[in-house]
Specification:
Largest sheet: 6 strands, mixed
Order of helices and strands: HEEEEHHEHEH
Distance between the termini: 48 Å
Radius of gyration: 16 Å
Strand content: 15-25%
Shape: globular
């Protein structure tokens, strides 16, 4: 008979294979940018990351904040990629955060997610001096963050440089990545 820890590890591994995260813009930022926040692109509006992960963006409605859900799901592109799952998860989380920041998000509240996608999003937000409210980091999370900080800061710095040059394949409003 398997131990509870062993069962938990197996469940986490299965969840990570179909990684997902759900965030909301709470407290609500005033003046969110772009057509994506008007609902003109659909409710939800769908996008794809460079790694093939799918994003569903639900614009704010009345007093309800904007909500975003990202998942590896069943998109074939995510499964035929040469990227390792952990790299796919981290790069998709980085793309998601940068996209949301570009649309005016400064407040990120964790609603639900698989362990790896949640950690990747929390870690990147921490590296760029944002908070993921609603998520309580463990000692292990913080240890991994300390070891990965140099890797997490590099995409933030390079995304600023890349944005000044051209769109390098990150999310594009109303479509998929280049």
């Amino acid at each position: 008979m398997a131990s509870k820890q062993g069962d938990s590890n197996i469940v986490n591994m299965l969840l990570d294979n179909f990684g997902y995260i759900e965030l909301e813009n709470k407290p609500v930022n005033k003046g969110l940018k772009g057509e994506i926040n008007t609902g003109d692109l659909g409710n939800p509006a769908y996008f794809e990351t460079g790694s093939g992960w799918m994003i569903a963006y639900y614009p704010p409605q009345g007093k309800d904040p904007a909500v975003v859900k990202m998942s590896r799901g069943l998109n074939e592109k995510a499964y035929v990629s040469n990227e390792v799952l952990s790299v796919q998860t981290l790069s998709s989380s980085i793309e998601l955060v940068e996209f949301l920041k570009d649309k005016g998000w400064t407040n990120f509240k964790f609603k639900d997610g698989s362990p790896l996608a949640t950690w990747s999003t929390w870690a990147y937000l921490s590296a760029v001096d944002n908070k993921l409210t609603g998520y309580k980091a463990t000692k292990e999370d913080k240890r991994k963050l300390a070891q990965a900080m140099h890797l997490l800061k590099a995409p933030a710095e390079s995304s600023v440089q890349a944005a000044e040059v051209e769109n390098m394949g990150t999310l594009i409003e109303g479509g998929t990545s280049k």
